Amino acid sequence: MPVHIDDPSPGMPFDPKGFTVRGWVWLEAEHGLIAGVVVTCGNALLGQADVSTFYERPDVAAKYRLSPGTLTSFQFIARHSVSTDDAFRLELRVRWHDGTVSPPIFTRDLALPPPERDPARLLRQRVPSDACGLEIGAHTLPVEGLSPFYTDMVAVYAGTAGRIDFLADARALPIAEDTLEYLCSSHVLEHLADPIAALLEWHRVLAPGGCLYLVVPDKRFTFDEPRELTSVDHILRDFTEGATTARSLQHVDEFVFHTDWSRLHPETSRLEQWRQQRVVREVYRRDLQEGKSVDIHHHTFTPDSLNQLLHAAGLVGGNAPRFEVLARAERYPAGRDDGIALLLRKTGHLSNRKRPGETFTLSRATSHPAPPTSDVQRSIAQRTPALPLVCPVSLDPLRREGETDGVAVLRGAPSGLRYEFDSGLPCLLPPPGARPIRPWGARSWPEPVSGSAATTATASPSIMMSHFDEPAPATPIDPLCFLVRGWIWLDRQHPEIAAVEVWSGNVLVGETTALYDRPDVVAAHSLSAKVRNGFELFAHHPAAAPRAPLNLQVRARLHDGSRTEILDNTTALTIPRDYRQNHFGILLDQRTTAMQREPNIFATGPSQAEGSGELADLLRRYLGPAPHGRIIDVGCGLGSYGRGLLADGYDWFGAEIDEADCAELKRLGLPHRQVDGRTLPFAAGAFDTALCLEVLEHIEDPRAFLREVSRVAPRQIIVSVPNCELLGYLWDHLATPWHMLESTHVNYFTRWSLGALLREFYPHVELRFHTPYPLQTIERTPLHYNLLAIGRATP
Q: pTM surpassing 0.90?
């Protein structure tokens, strides 16, 4: 009985809450009796795969001399209900067509890797929650479980505001030496022209005993794979010569022409690639000529080359290393699998550290070894103290007072020191009167030991805040259907939010009543962990003109019916055509409210044992926190969503017509009842919410069905159906999703027909989409397989 589990392998990083199981099985004469495979841990079902998802493995076929087309391999997501550091046994079993399950045919003992192979985990164990730390370049993906300050070169990247307390160059931080208890840098070092200068600067600001968490991409598993590996000599030479971004044209050519462009820009065809590469190169060249920085991977790394670089630079190893290595990992983190991670500890002892009298100690000569070349620069170097290259926005220690003959004047606060410098040199200053990027309240840097002039952030008054994450400014969108995503915070009025509304002038283009958890916003603004402040909706503005800017504003509607003022705004660009003008345009017309019906088409598929992770998250968002109330899942199939909801504490109950599915539900121990498809044997109002997921398209008389569902669950219904609007957009590709053509589909829904039907039974309906489709429109706007509707009896 040849069988094997390839992933997860012993000792590899993985997340017990969701990890991929991959392997193969060949049962020779009994192979045709397999209905699927399941993975268990004791009596707990962790995940399973139906035989319909099996695929061919050439290596297995060759080894066992199997005939072409023999399906032996599986891959699926498993979940352990409890995150634990203890080992647990993964047991692979076969599910037969008669519904029985075999004893374990393969076992593997798993545990989280030891801390010395999981740098982020070890860092969280070593630093207290109130430790003073800094993360460089977190943008919107910070290291989880920490609460540092954040810095970056820019406040907004790719149209999205990131986490930032102050602006800074990674090679010149406005922080006293020996200050930080930890510093994090994930996927930043490769973007720097002079990475050794940055590593030495990070060493300077860390206190003895402080930790440096460092992650760089492994070129073997990224779009950098075809590029030549950057040699250690090259990086050492860049440091010796004081390399800056302005000398990066060589790296630009490597980045543009030697990377895997299909991974960088998967939307670009092979025919368009060369033209796009030349355009991008010219943009980078122009930016460099204008003295701007370019955001590229300057250097490439492998685990061996990174280790050699740290040794050659004197950062680790030798008689007097600056750091000792506490943990290292490859293919890191789990799920992304493309990084090299290290946790380094600065050598020395905290008790021996000495703080300087000035907060900002890094001089220009230290970061740029090249000597002054002009008379103005020589004069400045002789007359002024060390000049910081940056100005933190929140701490605001410097103010520009004027500029004469190419010399700018800054005055430090609270020291009063006057700085003069060549205005042509880089100095990142906020505009006059600029306020902090985000309020931190009373949060501030710790008081220095020996009278350093550190500045404390002032407390901020209570304010309302919001932000558009999508669409980013100038993003092309289809005004008939576009995603709006962001976050909102109303301070003391936050519990009074009834809905988040998106307007375009005087037109309400979309709203949602469901807020969800945004841990990044909670951490960034020090909010209560229980606050739900993220919003996401699909908006619609049929009157918007093509090829024109579309201004969007976000407001909150409160329970008393009043609205806030505009909290944030953005401007997108509408695509240059109207999809209502093509053959399927009637599908996108709001006047079309009648359900469309067709007889049997092609084939039908089995019930799915594994639900969509995106839909599972959306269900929890619209249900609210567990236990919520009684939930009936009408047409629950194999209970693919019920298992997760029950595990999370929801009161779920399944109703299913199919006898075989009910047998599987019984075997799995899921609460359910077999129904006749016409009536539900429950009292009126017995349930708080009804789920009808991929069911309504199969129902001959949907109105009679919804009448019965609304009888037993009159307060709320959540419906998912195939999105028939997809057909209009896919006309560009002459494509049709097969799932829409199953033989048992008799109803075909658009937003308007589904909304009109549901409103007959649930007056208040919110509509959106889920599950992205692999193809996009010719304008690169996204498409989605499914519609999701949330119907409620009351707002």
A: no
